[in-house]
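Hey, quick one: can you model this chain's 3D structure?
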Amino acid sequence: MTVPGRRSSTFIRLVRAGFTDPSTAGRLLDAPALAAVHSDPVLLDALGATADPDLALLGLVRLAEAQSPDDLPLLLDTLVSAKPLRDRLLGVLGASEALADHLARHPHDWRALVTYESADLHPGLAEFERGLADAADPVALRVSYRRCLLSIAARDVCGTTDVAQAAAELADLATATLRAALRIATAAAPDDAAQCRLAVIAMGKCGGHELNYVSDVDVIFVGDTAPGADEGKAVQAATRLASHLMRICSETTVEGTIWPVDANLRPEGRNGPLVRTLASHLAYYQRWAKTWEFQALLKARAVAGDPDLGAQYIDAITPLVWQAAERDNFVADVQKMRRRVVDNIPAAQVERELKLGPGGLRDVEFAVQLLQLVHGRSDATLHSGTTLDALQALAAGGYVGRTDAAQLGDAYRFLRAMEHRIQLYRLRRTHLVPEDEADLRRLGRSMGLRTEPVAELHKAWRRHASVVRRLHEKLFYRPLLDAVAQLAPGETRLSPRAAGQRLEALGYADPVAALRHLEALSSGVSRKAAIQRTLLPVLLGWFADSADPDAGLLGFRKVSDALGKTPWYLRLLRDEGAAAENLARVLSAGRLAPDLLMRAPEAVALLGDTGGLEPRTQEALTQEVLAAVNRADRPEAGVAAARGVRRRELFRTTAADIIGSYGTEESPAEEDPGALVDRVGNAVSDLTAATIAGALRAAVRAQWGDTLPTRFAVIGVGRFGGHELGYGSDADVLFVHEPRAGVDEQEAAKAAQAVVSEMRRLLQLPTADPPLLIDADLRPEGRSGPLVRTLPSYAAYYRRWALTWESQALLRAEPVAGDPELGARFIDLIDPLRYPVEGLGEDAVREIRRLKARMESERMPRGADPTLHTKLGRGGLSDVEWTVQLMQMRHAWAEPGLRTTRTREALAAAHAAGLIPTEEAQTLDEAWVLATRVRNAVMLVRGRAGDTFPADARELAAVGRYLGYPPGRVGEMLDDYRRITRRARAVVDELFYGSA
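Sure thing. Here's the predicted structure for all 996 residues.
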């Protein structure tokens, strides 16, 4: 009798045994069919050891109830007395609802699990063929197939076979099934069979001897004529046989289906003929096949039909497979195919995808296959269609590090085991990790995780997926360390030929030159060569992560040749981990930064200094530049020194920008692109101001000593005044002067004009340093007006002649060099013009809109794509800046926050003042930042300025990498740019051209 309020002992035992619904389990144990064994402790313990005790018990009751009265005692007696059967049967019932359904429909099939002989432990193709031999129709074939599948699952869940052995058995069963299906099809159409020869080639996981429980079986059909038959009729007959074979396996009957037979890997896919002759196959592969088709053929295996024809096919295509790596863009094509697979995964499923998601099974398979195709050209030991066997061969040959191969193999086995258990439950084709708690519990327990199965499963899964993500790309360059460094006894290394193939696979366009650089850098017994041998493999990996690995390696050789004898250089790279990676990023990101570095290689020291990449203040820069000018004996020497400072600081800025954009292993990429843009704009603008100040001092000292007859100031306008200069921007300026007391106005004007001319000459002298172009075209009267004016002259012009656009141009005017007090008075003069009291009148607003519209139609370069032009294109810099400036001219008189020369600050102030909604402000800011970054990227990559994306594929890819797009995503980059700027243009149309 059970005491009220207390659980029965049976209930407690069921809970302890792992049942999640002990009440239902208790009722099932009391079912009449289990009366003879329901109290047997061995049975309860065995149920508790399964993946899902509740499911196992339910399946057992259904199986028992399906037995005849004469057969039931045999089942129950064998169940409690024979441990092998008990473990196998209950293991299957606790892991697979679908196989429990099969046993309930075919209650005698449990006897297939009784035998426990050596052949039964590890059956092969012959055993499966015997198991299917009696199947004479599709329904009987399904029943026999499930019976064989039952034995595979039993060995799998009991641990008699590991995941690789289970996958091989599933592939053997599929082979036997295809042969049985072809036998049935042949028997149904003997006339067709007499006219032709037909070979069935397994592809994919079936061909690779690593099939899942439920998977499409990929095949290719090869046909030929029987002796004396017509070729056309023979191919038609073979096509009918192949189609019937596919239907036998794929169609749903009263016993369900087996699996779909998929022939879409054939030449031309589903658009091509189902059956081709061998000659037709070869003609296609030699002329039309894409890279991915040769990758798929790596797993081709003749499995059914005419064995001689199948062997001929394999012999014919094998050389083509191992020549695929010689095709143009081979590596890019393979990697692009992998990315396309990932991109097609629904966003909601990416994190649950075992097969196709990042860190999934396909990452391992693609990495292994790519290495096989690269090195299998010269090493036949790599010619395996089985992933784990190929991985082992790669490790044995030195193509993959042994530790990496072991870790990757362990991860692959774990992920495949998860995939098997997920599919086994309902025998459905899926690669998604379930979300339901009960499903996760069953899955975890089936993997041997019993304490906290769900938590332990997630932890193990994420750990293995992380290993795959970390290793699958690094596999390509890590073994290069062994190719150039000392190895432990017994280890193998890449041969020079294999190293060249690997470099080519890594993306080096000229592997011969790359090997030559490696040899020059690492040969010999000197300390320098020893350090280089340690550094190079790591650097090669970083170079390979860029759009131009060749340029990175060549640049490293040049820097090393220039600095290799200095004691601090290699020590810096060896001991300061960040310095080496920073250098690799800088050298391989484009032309500008390496060009700047090669003009003064000692600047590499900045890359190892903790604060070396932080921008210096304008005050510090100006002080250094003026001191250098003062030390020079000639103005040319003084400005050369100033330009040298500018070159060094430009390198500092470009290096910081590249490293912040790419990120490093220790420091992730800057998440806020606006911060990168602001840092570059401020740094380049401050540096330009300091350089101009130096040129001004040099020009004055050369003729007048310390004091010029007139006070003189330089006003930055445009991007210069807005602290928004890019790497390729000219410096837009205005010059203003004021005669000193007692100096004749004409003499003062002549002196001011001479200073301007001398400054421009000095800054454009041909030297190794980049020139600084000064543009004064925004001055009153433009190119027709004097280069320099006095304050009263400016005041008279603006009072009488100034047009609205000239007031608009003054919005970004700010003193940058020369007499600060004179510069401040110039600002006082122009403030009423750029911030008119009560704002702009409607006539002025219409004039600005008209001018902007005319500029859009007239100034766009011929042939330029208006959707990709960063300055004048749709939603580009001009659109955003004119919209912001119109708000400034209309509202800055009443909103002090709008009185700034900086576009982003003014936009933020307009938002804060309620002049533009949050979403629209964010849209304009995003577009402006992106367009600015593209312009900076083009200059970094090409070494010369440009307002649109490069046409060259490698340069375009480098721009993409700078903007944070992985390799092969330039199309996505261009689509994103168009989408972001299109949205910005919609805001511009509303705010600038509308009534707002």
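One thing worth noting: Residues 195 and 228 are 8 Å apart (CA to CA).
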